[in-house]
Write a structure and sequence with these properties.
With 252 residues, this protein is an alpha+beta fold. The chain has three domains: 3-56, RNA-binding S4 domain (Structural Genomics Hypothetical 15.5 Kd Protein In mrcA-pckA Intergenic Region, Chain A), CATH 3.10.290; 62-131 and 223-239, Pseudouridine synthase I, catalytic domain, N-terminal subdomain (Alpha-Beta Plaits, 2-Layer Sandwich); 134-216 and 243-251, Alpha-Beta Plaits (2-Layer Sandwich). 21% of the residues lie in helices and 27% in strands. The chain has helices at residues 3-9, 15-23, 89-93, 123-130, 150-158, 193-200, 232-239, and strands at residues 27-29, 32-33, 47-50, 53-56, 62-67, 104-105, 114-120, 138-144, 160-162, 165-169, 173-178, 181-186, 205-213, 216-217, 227-229. Strands 5, 6, 7, 8, 11, 12, 13, 14 and 15 form a nine-stranded mixed beta sheet that branches. Strands 2-1-3-4 form a four-stranded antiparallel beta sheet, with no helix packed on it. The chain has a two-stranded antiparallel ribbon with strand order 9-10. Strand 3 and strand 4 (53-56) form a beta hairpin. The radius of gyration is 21 Å and the shape is elongated. It starts with a helix and ends in a 13-residue tail after the last helix. The structure holds uracil. Uracil is lined by residues 109-110, 113, 192-195, 208.
Amino acid sequence: MRIEEILYTQGFGTRRVCAGLVQQGFVTVSGSPIEDPGADVETEGLRFTVQGAEWEYHEKAYLMLHKPAGTECSQKPSTYPSIYTLLPSPLRLRPNKGAVQGVQAIGRLDQDTTGLLLLTDDGQFIHRMGSPKHHVPKVYEVTTKHPIDDSQVARLLAGVVLDDDPKPVRAAACELAGPLHLSLTLTEGKYHQVKRMLAAVGNRVEALHRSRIGMLALPDDLPPGQWRWLRPEEVEALRNARGSHLVVTVAR
Ligand code: URA
């Protein structure tokens, strides 16, 4: 692929802008400016710089973000800054045939929820991860207002009815991590689900953090507000993630 086409696919602007960046010598590959803009450049493992900023070529973008509190997952937030402002502009401007531009969050977390959020520009992947058929398990670390008792844990595992649906929703796993701390695994993602489930058993969520999606844990070395590319094997593991093998556990 020609370098200006590469820049275009990676979200560096219109084709005209990308051609301009190359012509003006703002792009380097392997540390050297582009000598022949018409040359075919190998995209596999390609690293380049645009105006001094380093970039890796990714045919499709798959990334994780450590969502900080006080951010909204919407592109058009109402009160708090959007999580999309935490990403570099090429990730927000990647062209996408017939679909919305740039990467999109896979599901949403509430404004005050922290933790692991995945984003991609692969529509099929978003569909697969959100499909009820796949039941990808998500683990939430919950801090409650009142001490959690065994009957509350039992009810979360047995299933509680939320106000908008007569069908009960249940935790796939529930582990007590202290009197006010609970690790809750869900395989579906209804609106405010954790908060509503805890309210349904007579408790209240004080803080909520998503620590895991499928086999992927939020790494300790990714601080709030930071993002990183997913590795190919992580994307593959998520593609194959299913909740059906989950074992229900209650432990103190
Ligand atoms: N459940 C909630 O109540 N809030 C979230 O952000 C995620 C799951």
